[in-house]
């Protein structure tokens, strides 16, 4: 049958139009992958595989989506189908090699890469994609697989040589990635900047530059780079992620709450624009923790759907425990953290905060010994957690467990001898040891003399480093009085009571009433037979503060009574 020239032209036009539509769809899928919209990309690529079943590039990109979302076996199955469907296309052999790299099988990977080179030895994209495959890593935070930077750079360099006209920005992007993954940001910057020269619309290179500024703590410069990306493409999710990370680091991980909240806002925007993967949800939860938004954190952690046996379930239990404690849901916190410790078998992965929150939850439950043991572990890992030892000591002191409280304050001093709150620990060590022996005496039991000596030593240190702290002298006076020999007293407490009185300002008298009355009474009694005028002065000051005080009134009356007349006179 004769076919007209016009018909031929029309048919060719339809074929070209179909190719254009296909190319546009594949390009959109690639953009979705770059924007980390993996569900969207997967749906598009599955449709392309169905409609263009003999084109290997569809299979390759679908396989990459599976690799990026952690489904290595699914990726390998798709690559294998791609090899069969398009035997002359080497992309799926490279995909199989990348799956091998992620499975820690570099020997098999090289075999697949060599097959790919044999199919297209002069094509720069062959070496480019092999180089990118050598950069593959499972997750940056997990030691499952490591990039092979030597082979990656060798292949990317070969691709750069074959792409002599520098027409493909992906070559420079891969070079930048190879250096950036090694934290060689100076070497990465040049290639990333070249990407913009070749492809001004490329978002990832500029995002990476912003990320590198963040890693160098050049926060304003990084902020500008990332905001430029967002201004050019408000739907490019990775830029919001890196901006969120930048603000979090800039906030000194929550010290600056305003910047920490900016971090949350941007990271949430990233999640809204992407697939809300479990990894991104976990990172978002960490942002909430640093920003001290514990109510939202507990809600987010409790709503996470974690497959059975997924190791991330351990992390979720941790976040539930931490947030429940901060929200004062103490029994629930103890449940979650007990679950966490039962599941986490690798002790090297247990954080100081894990021990800290478990110990604090146990303290709330009255499990004092277990609580202290875990808080000590927290302090060993991070001396900043010694604050919790002081908190535990105070809780035990309030519960009148003075001996145990003193032991904890000793540990708090050991792990935090000079830091924030350390002077308070010396004071409370003195206080708890005093109360311990005071009640032993009331129960007619022997004093803990060693404990009192320890207390006096702690308060002596406090007197030296904080000479204007009045209560240190008052407690030291009480201890000296308690230790004094009642049959032959030395009155070592006198100078401490007097020093205490001298340090209390007139406007502070009301808030120090009980301690001042005790001091005035003691000094009044001491000076009664040594310096009558001085004794009367102290007793009058006691009565002025506490007119109903029985001791001062009676003693004053005794001192002011007329002297008895001698017999016979």
Automatic annotation (TrEMBL):
Single Gene Ontology BP annotation: RNA catabolic process
Signal peptide extent: 1-23
Indicate yes or no for the key word Manganese: no
Asked if the Swiss-Prot or TrEMBL record annotates the protein with the keyword Acetylation, the reply is: no
- Write out the entry's keywords from A to Z: Repeat, Signal, TPR repeat
Which intervals of the chain form a coiled coil?
Answer: none
Spans of repeat TPR: 56-89, 169-202, 386-419
Entry-linked PROSITE patterns: TPR
Which PANTHER family does the protein's record reference? SUPERKILLER 3 PROTEIN-RELATED, SUPERKILLER COMPLEX PROTEIN 3
Q: What is this protein called?
A: Uncharacterized protein
What is the phylogenetic placement of the source species in the record?
Bacteria, Pseudomonadati, Bacteroidota, Sphingobacteriia, Sphingobacteriales
């Amino acid at each position: 049958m004769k076919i007209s020239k016009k018909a031929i032209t029309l048919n060719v036009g339809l074929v070209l139009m179909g190719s254009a539509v296909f190319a546009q769809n594949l390009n959109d899928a690639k953009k979705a992958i770059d924007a980390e919209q993996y569900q969207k990309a997967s749906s598009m690529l599955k449709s392309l595989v169905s409609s263009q079943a003999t084109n290997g590039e569809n299979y390759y990109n679908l396989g990459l989506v599976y690799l990026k979302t952690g489904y290595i076996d699914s990726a390998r199955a798709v690559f294998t189908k791609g090899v069969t469907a398009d035997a002359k296309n080497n992309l799926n052999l490279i995909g199989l090699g990348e799956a091998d790299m992620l499975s820690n099988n570099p020997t098999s990977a090289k075999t697949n890469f060599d097959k790919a080179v044999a199919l297209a030895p002069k094509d720069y994209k062959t070496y480019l994609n092999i180089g990118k495959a050598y950069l593959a890593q499972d997750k940056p935070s997990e030691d499952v697989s490591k990039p092979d930077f030597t082979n990656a750079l060798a292949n990317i360099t070969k691709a750069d040589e074959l792409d002599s006209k520098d027409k493909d920005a992906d070559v420079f992007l891969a070079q930048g990635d190879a250096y950036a993954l090694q934290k060689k940001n100076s070497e990465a910057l040049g290639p990333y900047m070249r990407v913009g020269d070749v492809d001004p619309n490329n978002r990832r290179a500029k995002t990476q530059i912003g990320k590198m500024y963040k890693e160098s703590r050049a926060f304003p410069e990084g902020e500008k780079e990332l905001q430029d990306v967002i201004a050019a493409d408000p739907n490019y999710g990775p830029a919001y992620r890196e901006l969120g990370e930048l603000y979090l680091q800039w906030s000194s991980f929550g010290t600056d709450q305003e910047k920490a909240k900016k971090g949350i806002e941007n990271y949430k925007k990233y999640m809204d624009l992407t697939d809300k993967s479990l990894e991104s949800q976990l990172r978002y939860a960490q942002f909430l923790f640093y920003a001290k938004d514990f109510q939202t954190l507990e809600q987010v952690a409790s709503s996470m759907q974690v497959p059975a046996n997924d190791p991330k379930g351990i992390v979720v239990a941790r976040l539930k425990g931490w947030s429940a404690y901060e929200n004062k849901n103490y029994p629930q916190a103890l449940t979650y953290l007990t679950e966490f410790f039962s599941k986490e078998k690798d002790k090297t992965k247990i954080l100081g905060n894990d021990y800290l929150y478990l110990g604090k939850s146990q303290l709330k439950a009255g499990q004092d010994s277990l609580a202290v043991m875990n808080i000590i572990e927290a302090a060993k890992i991070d001396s900043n957690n010694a604050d919790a030892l002081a908190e535990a000591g105070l809780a035990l002191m309030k519960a009148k467990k003075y001996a145990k409280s003193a032991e904890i304050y000793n540990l708090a001093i050991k792990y935090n001898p000079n830091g924030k709150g350390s002077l308070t620990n010396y004071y409370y060590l003195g206080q708890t040891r005093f109360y311990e022996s005071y009640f032993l005496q009331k129960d007619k039991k022997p004093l803990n003399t060693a404990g009192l000596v320890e207390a006096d030593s702690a308060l002596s240190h406090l007197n030296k480093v904080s000479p204007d702290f009045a209560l240190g002298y008052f407690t030291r006076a009480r201890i000296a009085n308690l230790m004094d020999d009642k049959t032959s007293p030395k009155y070592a407490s006198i100078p401490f009571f007097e020093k205490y009185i001298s340090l209390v300002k007139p406007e502070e008298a009301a808030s120090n009433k009980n301690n001042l009355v005790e001091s005035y009474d003691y000094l009044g009694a001491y000076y009664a037979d040594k310096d009558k005028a001085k004794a009367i002065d102290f007793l009058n000051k006691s009565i002025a503060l506490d007119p109903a005080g029985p001791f001062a009134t009676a003693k004053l009356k005794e001192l002011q009574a007329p002297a008895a007349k001698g017999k016979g006179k």
